[in-house]
Request: fold
Amino acid sequence: MIQRPSTSILFLSAFALMFACNRKNTSTDAPSVWNKVKIDFSRIDENGLAGPPDGKVAVNYEFCIPAEEKLLSEVKKIDSSIQPYKGSKGRVGCQSNQWLLIGSTHQKNHRRVIYELAKLPYVQQIHETYFE
Reply:
């Protein structure tokens, strides 16, 4: 007599397969994109915070983009934490035809957000910001 799998086993198998197919594969990240990012992620937790347990803070980062509203809109779609500082050079040394943008790691999927920003062809580098 042939034994058939139960309905619940079939359902669970189908659900697991569906979930596995929908996961984003981060192993295909281009190393050249990550080379543009100058942030020490080893000290940042899953919530995008760094520091001792009783004093965790967000890590801010900065980069330059060409001074165009459409590019600023594109960046803000990727990272809603972005604040533009038009006319400021920042530590990264934005040129007069560029805008300084500052974002925060205190957001969901902060590493993926930063990767997507670094992937933009007009973003040359992303550096950690130190406010003084």
Remarks:
- The chain has one domain: 29-128.
- The helical segments are 7-22, 31-34, 69-78, 110-119.
- The chain has a mean pLDDT of 85.
- The two ends are 77 Å apart (CA to CA).
